[in-house]
Amino acid sequence: LGVLHAMCFDLVPVVIDSDYHKPEYDYLNDDNSIIFSRDTSAAAFADYIVDIYRENPELLLDKRIKAWDTIKQYTIQNMANQFLKAVSKV
Q1: What is the pTM of this model?
Q2: What is the 3-state secondary structure (H, E, C) of 15-53?
Q3: Which residues contact 78 (CB under 8 A, 6 or more apart)?
């Protein structure tokens, strides 16, 4: 789950909307990421990423802070507990 990994490393996911990358996209929203419409060109996508780092780093900081609400339950301990539950059901 690249989206969750990105958030764990304080990176803000910047994506183009898609139905083909589920369930990763289900974690994204306007608070924790930047989501472009499906008709966004590759050039516009790349230009925006460069521009946001130059012109609006505060937006990225705000989204990084809000990303914690999305990922805080995905701790190593929680993943281990879920693994143990799954194995015990087998």
Answers
A1: 0.72
A2: EECCCCCCCHHHHCCCCCCEEECCCCCHHHHHHHHHHHH
A3: none
